[in-house]
Design brief:
The structure is a single chain. The chain is α+β, with helices and mostly antiparallel strands. The chain is 22% helix and 29% strand. The protein is built from six helices and 17 strands. The strands form four sheets. Strands 7, 8, 9, 10, 13, 14, 15, 16 and 17 form a nine-stranded mixed β-sheet that branches. Strands 3-2-5-6 form a four-stranded antiparallel β-sheet, with no helix packed on it. α1 crosses α2. It starts with 5 loop residues before the first strand and ends in a 5-residue tail after the last helix.
Length: 249
């Protein structure tokens, strides 16, 4: 008889609760129950028979998959629920019509392009560290930036004992008291660009994400969202699939 059970984090991802990585965090935090019992990593479920509850809400299968982009303003945290009762990006997408969650993150002081979806597998493909999906940021720093600083940023910075991957950093504009840079990176460590800048003596004044995997935010107004169009979805699916298969894009 065929085993119909799948890993709990995969089931949560397929039901649009969160990406697999975030689902694992929910399980480890004791916020997921299966048939009335607190789940653990390694728990398997039968989607057709088992009752799964996350934070007191029963998990149901996704009927319609939704993919949107949001122009995140500063002052919002990128999370579905915030224990400190701060403003979250979910406050900006209440009119989407279905429950969605953020793909990756932007810290509270950062702004710009953010994807949200109810497709956990899509989110997992775009955010998994092995994918190295490129992201472009416009970063304003205090003061001047010299060639030595640029070289260090591009070559790699030691963060927590691990070097950042080589990236592209170039000057967009030099002003009297500040410099505007473009960063193109292919990883997403916590507050990575801010910490890289700090390591070479630069203070970030403003950080805005403009592009993910070739999909640009364009003229979308701050605080607004729109569905990803067919061309953008084709681009994102092609990149995430090719990365999974080991191809270069």
């Amino acid at each position: 008889m065929k085993d119909s059970k799948i890993r709990l984090q995969k089931h949560l991802s397929e039901c649009g609760v969160a990406s697999r990585r975030k689902a694992e965090e929910l399980i480890m935090a004791g916020k997921v129950k299966v048939n009335g019992h607190v789940a653990t990593i390694g728990t398997k479920v039968d989607p057709k028979r088992d009752k799964v509850v996350v934070r007191g809400k029963t998990v149901v299968a996704v009927r319609q998959k939704v993919y949107i982009m949001l122009h995140k303003p500063r002052g919002y945290v990128t999370t579905v629920n915030d224990e400190f009762n701060r403003k979250t990006v979910m406050d900006l997408v209440k009119d989407v019509g279905v429950r969605v969650f953020p793909v990756g993150r932007l810290d509270m002081d950062s702004e710009g392009l953010l994807f949200l979806t109810n497709d956990g597998e899509f989110a997992n493909r775009l955010t998994h560290p092995s994918r190295h999906v490129t992201k472009t940021y416009r970063v304003t720093v205090d003061g001047a930036v010299d060639d030595e600083m640029l070289d260090k940023l591009c070559t790699g910075i030691d963060l927590d004992g691990k070097m950042t991957l080589p990236c592209d950093v170039f000057v967009v504009e030099r002003r009297e008291t500040r410099t505007v840079l473009n960063f193109i990176i292919s990883e997403g460590r916590n507050r990575q660009i801010r910490r890289m800048c700090e390591a070479v003596g630069l203070k970030v004044l403003r950080l805005k994400r403009l592009e993910i995997a070739g999909v640009k935010m364009g003229m979308l107004p701050q605080g607004k969202w729109r569905p990803l169009n067919e061309r953008e979805m084709t681009r994102l699916n092609a990149i995430s699939e090719s990365k999974r298969n080991g191809a270069d894009v």
